[in-house]
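Design request, tokens follow.
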């Protein structure tokens, strides 16, 4: 190996490009012991400078290599994502829509609702209840024999397709609307203590909600925002099952001697009519006119919401001022039933075959896509956000509630799939007997109550 002298010592010769570079730059320094002073690089010798240059070049080379690899991988991922997206569009079709680009939840905010300043001067309009009048009665027992296992008693009864079709006609009639006893059976299901029934039968104005299967926390109405008049005259009823009652007690929400937790009157339901807790929840949601037969008005509040508005202000604004007998908000994101069907399948909210059977029947019976550009749409949306419903217990409102419940009882428990079909069919079959339904904005719904997430999702 060749040697060369550096600072009086013999060192191995460095070969190659790097060695040549050092040799050429450092040649003039051989044999020199003096440190150059007063120059730009101060005490740094050319030997050290060469080493720093080499280090910088090496780091820069590594950076370029890593950056190039990352750009290559990113380009491959974008190409793969683009291909996957195109394939998905081909499979789903252009009418279905595309999945959300981000997993982050969109934020939706309340908007201002122009309530009256005080309930002290509220008076029900004299001509308010001048709606379509007819008599609606309900089947309370089926005469069918249940000796055959195919005909076990059902809470909603065994409505035939012919009976279903005729029930949409607004006329004096007796129809299926839950609480139907089977022959030889003493209970319909959804059993309530007689003392609680006596309380409920005296209610004239009701705010109700439910928790079944311990699916939620108990959220009390904000007492300081509820007037003394409403506290004295409005029934606040929370339906729970025994499992939920025990869970609430473990969380410090045991009812007092009168059965109250805050403003909520806790009513325990036994012998639930369905194994599906979501479907069981449709009983108090849709059938408030059956549970509170003397009530003139009712407000349904989902258990994920805490009421923050006086009930009388809500009734005045959404019913009296709008001259409506039924008020419900539109969905915050979707407006077409086709979109709702796809979303239910994407999230596996219900059996896909059952959804298809229901949806195919609705299409064959005249359900069409919602066209937002059509100024003649009977509703601003065909998909509701059903967590807040304000009702006057008029014949048409009660009929609509029964019809909607019957669809949920017969098909899937996803009531957003059956809302538009039920409303449009009722409207189509009673063109001379209007149903005054007010669909309000979702941001107004958010102004009425504070929203939370469920304790557990009911599938």
């Amino acid at each position: 190996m060749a040697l060369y002298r550096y600072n009086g010592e013999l060192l191995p010769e460095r070969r190659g490009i790097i060695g040549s570079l050092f040799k050429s730059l450092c040649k003039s320094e051989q044999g020199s012991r003096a440190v150059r002073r007063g120059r730009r690089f101060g005490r740094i010798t050319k030997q050290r400078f060469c080493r720093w240059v080499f280090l910088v070049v090496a780091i820069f080379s590594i950076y370029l290599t890593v950056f190039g690899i990352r750009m290559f991988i990113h380009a491959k991922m974008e190409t793969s994502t683009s291909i996957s997206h195109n394939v998905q569009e081909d499979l789903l079709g252009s009418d279905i829509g595309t999945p959300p680009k981000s997993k982050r939840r969109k934020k939706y905010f309340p908007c201002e609702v122009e309530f009256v300043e005080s309930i002290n001067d509220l008076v029900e309009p004299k001509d308010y209840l001048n709606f379509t009048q007819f008599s609606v009665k309900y089947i309370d027992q089926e005469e069918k024999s249940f000796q055959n296992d195919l005909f076990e008693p059902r809470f909603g009864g065994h409505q035939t397709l012919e009976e279903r079709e005729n029930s949409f006609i607004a006329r004096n009639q007796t129809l299926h609307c839950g609480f139907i006893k089977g022959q030889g059976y003493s209970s319909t299901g959804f059993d309530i203590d007689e003392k609680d029934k006596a309380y409920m039968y005296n209610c004239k104005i009701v705010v109700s909600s439910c928790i079944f299967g311990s699916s939620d926390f108990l959220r009390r109405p904000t007492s300081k925002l509820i007037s003394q008049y409403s506290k004295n005259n409005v029934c606040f009823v929370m339906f729970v099952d025994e499992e939920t009652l025990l869970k609430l007690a473990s969380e410090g929400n045991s009812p007092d001697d009168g059965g109250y937790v805050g403003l909520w009157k806790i009513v325990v339901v036994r012998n639930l009519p369905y194994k599906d807790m979501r479907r069981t929840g449709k009983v108090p949601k849709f059938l408030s006119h059956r549970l509170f037969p003397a009530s003139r008005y009712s407000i349904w509040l989902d258990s994920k919401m805490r009421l923050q508005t006086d009930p009388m202000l809500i009734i005045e604004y959404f019913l009296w001022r709008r001259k409506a007998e039924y008020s419900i908000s539109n969905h915050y994101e979707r407006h077409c039933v086709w979109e709702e069907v796809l979303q239910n399948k994407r999230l596996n909210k219900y059996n896909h075959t059952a959804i298809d059977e229901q949806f195919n029947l609705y299409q064959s019976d005249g359900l069409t896509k919602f066209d937002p550009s059509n100024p003649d749409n009977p509703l601003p949306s065909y998909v509701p956000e059903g967590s807040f419903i304000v009702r006057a217990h008029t014949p048409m409102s009660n009929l609509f509630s029964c019809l909607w419940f019957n669809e949920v009882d017969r098909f899937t428990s996803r009531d957003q799939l059956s809302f538009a079909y039920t409303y449009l069919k009722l409207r189509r079959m009673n063109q001379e007997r209007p149903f005054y339904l007010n669909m309000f904005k979702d941001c107004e719904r958010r102004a009425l109550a504070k929203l939370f997430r469920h304790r557990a999702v009911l599938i």
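Comment from the thread starter after seeing the answer: thanks! The longest strand covers residues 384-392.
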